[in-house]
Amino acid sequence: MRDDIKINDRALAMSDQLINTFESIFDPEIELDIYNLGLIYEIDLSEAGHLHLVMTFTDTNCGCADTMPFEIVDKLTKIDGINSVNVEITYNPVWKMTRISRYGRIFLGISPRDGK
After folding, report:
1. Which InterPro entries is this protein grouped with (predicted)?
2. Domain annotation covers residue 111
């Protein structure tokens, strides 16, 4: 799991499944997944199986802001142990290109030296 994502122990225990899911959800304008794009800030999974996800978008006018949360909920609730999902959108802190992973930077043709 990326070190810039705040995650509790329950969610961390299923990090491989979470990462695989996040890597299957793409920002349609940038054509990079939400995990490598650095849109995820926080993941908290309760004992009851409720996952609270705090994320952002690359811009406040992102066209996928209305549809992407539904896709995220749909895909995450298919993981065993996750019964419900709440997606909280925040713009604080503001997303910056430095949040793009090394893999994402290479994929997008940006110098990987500045990525995490």
Report:
1. Fe-S_Maturation_MIP18, FSCA_dom_sf, MIP18-like
2. no
